[in-house]
Amino acid sequence: MTVSAALRGAEVSAAANAAAGSEVAFDKVSVAYRGSVVLKPLTMSVAAGEILAMIGPSGSGKTTALRAVAGFVRPAAGRILIGGTDVTNLPPYERGLAMVVQNYALFPHMRVSENVAFGLNARGAARDLIAQRVEDSLRIVGMSKFASRFPRELSGGQQQRVAIARALAVRPRVLLLDEPLSALDAQIRRSMVEEIARLHADLPDLTILYVTHDQSEALTLADRIAILKDGELSAIGAAGELYRRPPNRFAAEFLGRANLLPVVVERVAQQSGFVEARLGETRVVASGADHPAGAERLLCVRPQNLTLTCEAERSNRIEAVLREIHWQGELTHLVAEIGESILRVVATRLPNPPARGDKLEFFFSPSDANLIVEDGSV
Amino acid sequence: MLVWSLSGRALVWSFAAILLGIVFVAPLAVIICASFSEQWNGILPTGFTLEHYRDAMNGAARDAVYASLVTGLVASLLALVTGAWAALALRARVDQWAGALGLLFFIPSAVPSVSVGLGLLVAFSQKPLLLNGTTAIVFVAHYVLISAFAFGNISAGLSRLAPDYEEVASCLGARPAYRLMHVTLPLVAPYLVAAFGLSFALSMGELGATVMVYPPGWVTMPVAIFGLTDRGDIFSGAALTMILVVVTLALLIGLERAPIRSAAPR
Ligand SMILES: Nc1ncnc2c1ncn2[C@@H]1O[C@H](COP(=O)(O)OP(=O)(O)OP(=O)(O)O)[C@@H](O)[C@H]1O
Ligand SMILES: [Mg+2]
Question: Which of A33, A306, B21, B228 has its CA 20 to 30 A from that of B53?
Fold first, then answer.
């Protein structure tokens, strides 16, 4: 059964969609607008039921990649596969997807219930099925009470929920979310992130592509994160892994603050997966493999992984001169100087706060540090 | 308001009132007075009568009202449909053809309407396309003159429509025809109504081209008014003018109400 045949039928059932599969694959997909390339050949795949967050600075091509999946832009080259089927030449309405955009785009001339019913009506579903789905979808997002309102009578957060209900009502194989929370204030955003996570737990087969600017949204929600830079995939990996072991400077800095100190590789350490390197005069051990001796690399340590007290036997020890100290309630931010570089440290408790100009010893465990390259793409 | 001081504002308002009075109200007032008066020899008319209206409603004027309404409706509907079609078709194009085709629509409105009438007269006087002396040529003339405005209005509406709505719709499974009927057209409905209203009003007042092409049995109101005043029957002309104004206004006001009711049921 082809994808289009499965979707064209009035019966839009979860079973049919599950059978069609919901993994998404980009196969050397590139996109150009009037000759200028905005997405360089992109190859990556999103497993069925996975949440993949795409993050990157403004203009990096996140929306473009999403629009290519939806079918709103035609790739200049490459293929897009959904459930193993090539959909590159299918129109958007035959792809079995649903999309939520930044400004929600609820149809202003339809009530909430009509908005939610839109996709099913458009596909010619049976009336009882539509009524049932509308009810279910509104209940899932907690908007049942608002079924007969018009979009303009709802708050931003409520419109957001309706937009999600409208997308879920068609039981899409893949849900595309383009910065769905960016128009909401910080507090609602946090609770919406939790709700999307809960929702995904209820719909484990649903594959979600989630575009955001916000690394904390990505880290909270996503199974895996793809980082785009200038239309190129800069890094991709499991969320926690990518945070702990970013492959390059851009990925390290995009996912949170990072100290990146230039080092020279000495040799691969006895214990596998670790490397010895020289930071100025100091010898450090960090995780990482495949770094040739003599190569110039960056030592990446997150500010919260540096301590002023030596806890573990095998800790690295570096010396730095304290330049600034900022106390911020729960946390204390230290800025120190090591050679030419700046070292940022976040400490949770400091019994005897040091003073500016003090020469301090900082400790970090080899497994909290890793060697990365300055620049690189996957 | 750009003027803030009280005296300044008073000055601006009085100026606006005088301008409005002289340019808009005075001519209309004269016509109203004339339509109700028996004689007008001095500065003010004398005698009050409804006779001009009675004449108008009985005689050839009733046919003129009918001809104008039918012509206006037919031409405006045609303009609405083709204007919407053209605007939708050209919206997707960003190349130089779009600009050229858009311009094509505006050519007739830049040419004097008498010349448009003359052009049609010449163009449709030969065998395969012989329309001279038919009512169809009046429809065609009006359509040619008003279609640019319908197209312009609908184009403006479409260009203000964010693509998100239609994209979300097709992503959710709406085929192009379904999307057009349930999303695009409802969202530009105010512009469609405005386009229709403008076309209708223009058609109701059209004289230049109609005079060139109208057949004996299809005299529109402006042509009838022109004929009456040309013969010196100012009073009947004024009465017919008032009927034209009232009919047009009634239709426009009705149109303005309609979409608001359907878009905001509360
Ligand atoms: N319709 C278009 N025509 C021409 N260029 C476009 C078009 N849409 C996007 N671009 C360009 O493509 C590049 C990528 O845009 P895209 O919208 O994918 O960025 P993004 O990562 O989603 O950014 P943001 O975070 O600001 O939404 C940008 O340089 C943009 O200027
Ligand atoms: Mg974007």
Answer: B21
